[in-house]
Structure formats: C-alpha cells, structure tokens
Amino acid sequence: MIEMKNVYKKYPNGVVAANGLDIKIDSGEFVYVVGPSGAGKSTFIKMMYREEVPTSGEITINGMNLARLQKKRIPYLRRQVGVVFQDFKLLPRLNVYENVAFALEVIEEPPKKIKNKVNDVLALVGLTQKARMFPDELSGGEQQRVSIARSIVNVPKVVIADEPTGNLDPETSWEIMRIFEQINTRGTTIVMATHNKEIVNAIRRRVIAIEGGLITRDEYGGEYGYES
C-alpha cells in the first residue's frame, strides 16, 4: 500500500529530515510512528499525503508515485488518503454535518450519496445526535471525532494521523483510539505519529521509530521505547 525507496528530504536551512528511508507498509496494517521531537516524524508523515515533497527517492501509495505526482492529481490522492490532525482543522462556520459533507461536496458527490455517507460515518464516530452543532459547541474529543469522520467519509485506502490524541485527556484519547481500531478492522491502513507511550504499549501494533531522519527500529507488536 505504501512504499518509500531511498527517500531523502533536505530543507533549505540544511536540515536533513529524511536520510535514505526505505519502508513498506502493507494494506490493512496499523503502524505507529514514534521518535523524539525533531527526529523527522512529521516530515515522514507529511510526505505521505504530499504536504512535503522528497528531495530525492520514490514514495508510492496505492500505485501512485507521489514524488512525480502532478499538482492537478493531488486532489485524487487526497480522496484515497484521509488525514487527521492534532488541532482538528474544522471549519468554524459549518456544523458537524456540514464539515463532514464538505469533503464530499468538493469532489462533486451527488447530494443523496452525501447524505447517506455522512449519516453513516457520524453514526460510526458516535455523533449522530450532534450533527447540527458547531465546532465551538463541542468538546475537544468530539471535535476530533468530527475530524476523523471527515477523513474517512470518502472511504480512503489509508488514514494518516498526526498526533491525533495530542490535545486530548487520557480518557478521550482511549475513545479516539477505539474508533481508529474500528476503522482498521474494516480494512483501512492506519499510519499514526504519536508521543502517547501508554497507548502504543497497550495497543500493540507495528512500531516504526525515527531518529535523525533514519529508521532506527521497525518491529511488530513493539513498544514505544522512549521516555514520555
């Protein structure tokens, strides 16, 4: 599903955030990306949805070479790759239903399909009763549920989550993780950058550790491995 071949990323200030990355992630996997601050995790994640472009090397997701992807093809990529952020990135003037529906409207999905898909995904994340509420009326955990619903309403092959529990209390973080587990059991590949040691150690999945732009550890059922 995801493959990196000899990927380098050097920023204009001289910082090397990816130093020859080689990795394969199969369809349906659940992968944690861990490492100290400034290790290159965010760059690793951002290159997967083409927020960043590698300096050299190849990144392939579901057969698409992201390094060579034309700008006009990026929206097509984003239909297959859902992204969940730490700070939610919801549209404040749209209610819950409208925030999720917006992801389908921009790709010109028919109104009837939009209604059915949005209702289904809001049920999955437990927000059916709050469909008409606005982001500032929701708790942090509820806002993150909206963000997750928006990321999966297109039924993407991959969901990339960048510190999705970083702004949440422990109890809410576990609720969010249960939703990610549900999504994964449906066959969606999950790649999650996280500093949450407790979650990584309790919900054992594949762990990819990055330090200094290098993959220093790649193990199935691994532990977090750092002090948090």
From TrEMBL:
Superkingdom of the organism of origin: Bacteria
InterPro entries referenced in this protein's UniProt entry, alphabetically: AAA+_ATPase, ABC_transporter-like_ATP-bd, ABC_transporter-like_CS, ABC_transpr_LolD-like, Cell_div_FtsE, P-loop_NTPase
A GO biological process held by the record: cell division
Repeat recorded as keyword: no
Keywords: ATP-binding, Cell cycle, Cell division, Cell membrane, Membrane, Nucleotide-binding
Family assignment from sequence similarity: Belongs to the ABC transporter superfamily.
Function comment: Part of the ABC transporter FtsEX involved in cellular division.
Protein name stated in the entry: Cell division ATP-binding protein FtsE
Organism lineage: Bacteria, Bacillati, Bacillota, Bacilli, Bacillales
Primary gene name: ftsE
